[in-house]
Amino acid sequence: MTAGSAPRFAVGIDLGTTHCAMAVAALGEPPGSETPVEVVEVDQLVGPGELERRLLLPSFVYFPPESEGALPLPWDPERRYCIGEHARARAPEAPGRVVSSAKSWLCHPSIDRRSGILPLGAPDDLEKISPVEVSFRLLDHLGEVFARRYGVPLGEQDVVLAVPASFDAQARELTVEAATVAGIEEPILLEEPQAALYAWIDRSGEAWRQQLRPGDVVLVVDIGGGTTDLSAIAAEERDGALELERIAVGDHILLGGDNMDLLLAHRLRAELEARGAEIGALEMAALGHAARAAKERMLGPRPPEKVPVAIARRGAKLVGGALRGELDRATVESLLLDGFFPEVPADAAPAPRPRAALRQLGLPYASDPAVTKHLAQFLARHRGARGGAGALLRPSALLFNGGVLASKRVRERLRTTLDGWLTADGAEPARELPGADLDLAVARGAAYYGRVRRGRGVRIRGGTARAYYVGIEGAAPAVPGVEPPVSALCVAPFGMEEGTAAAFPAEELYAVVGEPVRFRFFASSVRRDDRAGERIDLAPGGGGPAARRARPGELEELAPIEVVLPTEGRAEGDVVPVHLGASVTAIGTLLLEAVPLEPRKDGERWRVELNVRGAR
C-alpha cells in the first residue's frame, strides 16, 4: 500500500473452484450511512473478440494454439490466454488447453503445488503452469478489472480472500503467495462458511437478531464446485448482546460439483459408446466439461427438461464432426440425489475405499460420494460442541451456500434427512435461514467482513476449532515392552484466535538437539476448558500429581512431526533446558517455539509448525 494512503474499499474475493466473484464495500463513510455492499461485474471474453461484464468469472484459463492469435482485452491487446466465460466454452472442444479446478489442485497434499502440471493432457506446444500460477492469473484479472473500474490499485485496498474453512496451512500460504504476486501484499483470509453467514447478516440488516436467538446453532452447508465445507456457528448472549461464535469445522472434503460432472460424463459416455463411439481420455475430459455446463442449466432457476451435449470427435475441427448426446432433468436429479445425497441414518459414516499401490496423477477426491454421510459424521464428531447429552450436534438453523444447492430438490433432500436425524434425537427440525445468495454470498460476506475489521458490523468469533496439545515424555527406567509415560501439554486452547499467543507457566522442559526427534501432537474438539500450559494425563503416571486425566476418545493423536533441531555449537544429542511458547498465525498455523534458557546466540529458538486447518 502506498505510504500514507488509506484504503477506500474493502474488497471481498471468492476465488472459487468453478467461479470467482468480487464485491466491494466502501470504507470511511459515517456510521449508519454505509452504502450497500456492491458486487463487481467482471469484464471477460465471452467469445472471440466479444467482451462482456458478468457477475461471475468462471475459473477457467484457456491457452489457444498459435494459429488462433491473440485474445485481446482493452488493457492488453496482445494477451495470449483468456480467463472466464470464453475459456470455459472452449473446454469441451479443447480440454488439453483449458485449466479448471485449480483451487482443488492448490490443496493437493501430495504434489509440488508450485510445479507446472496444468492442464492435464496438454499438447506438446503448451507449457504447463502450476496451481499457484493459475490462482495468480485469476487474481490478476480481477485486479485489472478493479483498477479500471475504480481508478485505484486493488493492492491498496483491504482485500479479503475467502478460503475453505478446512484449507490446510500450505494451501493458505500458497493462496497468500499468489495474491502477493498479483500485487495484493497483505491479503486477509476468511473462512467461506463464515463469509456466507456474514452475507446473510448484511442482507438481513437488523432483522437477523430476530431470526437468530440465544442458544441457536447455525449449520452452514457449503457445496461448491470442488469441496463440501461444513461449519457450525453458535448464537450466544453476552452482556445483553447477541454474539456469534464458530464452534465446529468439518474435514477438508474434496467432493462437490466436479464429482457430479464426472458422474454425468460417465452416463453420457455409456450412451455414446452404446452407439458405437470411441471415447478416449480427451473425449472423456471434454464430456466432463460439457456435463458441467448441462448440470448448471439443470440446477438453475428455470431448468429445461432436456439439454443437448456435443463434443468434438478425435481429430475433428468442426462442430459438424461432433459426438452428440443428451441429458434430461429427471435423470440428472435422480443420479445426483441417489448418488450424492442418499437418505442415510444418523450414525452413517463415509465408507473408506482401498487405495491402489500405483495410480495416475489426479485429485485426492473423497472416497465416499455421499454428502449426507459426511454430514452425519460431522454432527456426530462435534456432539460435544453444544448440547453434549445428545448423540449429535443439534443445529437449530440451516444456511445453504454454493451453486450445487441452487437445486430445490437437493436442498429438500438435505433438509428432510437432517430433520429426520434431529427429531429422532429429540430435537426440533432446523429452520432454513431465508435469503441466502448461493453464488455471490461468499464475495459479499468477505467485503462485509472488511468493514467488520474496522469496527462496523457484527463479528463472528472463530479461532481454532479444537484444542491442541504436544506430547511430553516423562522420565522412567527402561522396562522391556513398556513405553515411558506421556502427558499432553495444552499449547492452544479451544477457540484460540489467529494472531494471538498462548501464555505458559514458566515450566522448564528439555529439548534434544542434533539428532532426529519426533514431536507428538494431539487434538480435541470436546475438551473446551483446558488452558494453555495445562497437563493432561494420557497414561498412569504421565503428568504428575497436577495433571488431569483424559477420558477415552477425548484426545486424537495427529501425525507426528519429525525434525532435527540445530545444535548451534552444542554436541549432538545434548539435552537443552527450554521454555515453550505457542501462537496461532494469521493463516491458521500453530507455531510452537522452544526457547533455550541459555541461548548460544541472540534470538535463538526452535520452531515447529502444525497445520490446525486440516482434518477436524
Descriptive notes:
This protein is of the alpha+beta class and 616 residues long. Among the domains are: 9-189, Nucleotidyltransferase, domain 5; 257-340, Alpha-Beta Complex (Actin, Chain A, domain 4); 467-611, no CATH class. The protein has twelve helices and 32 strands. The strands form eight sheets. Strands 1, 2, 3, 6, 10 and 11 form a six-stranded mixed beta sheet that branches. Strands 18-17-12-13-14-19 form a six-stranded mixed beta sheet, with helices on both faces. Helix 3 (131-150) packs across helix 4, helix 5 crosses helix 12 and helix 7 packs across helix 8 (281-298). The radius of gyration is 26 Å and the shape is globular. The two termini are 36 Å apart. Residues 316-320, 356-362 and 540-546 have low confidence and may be disordered.
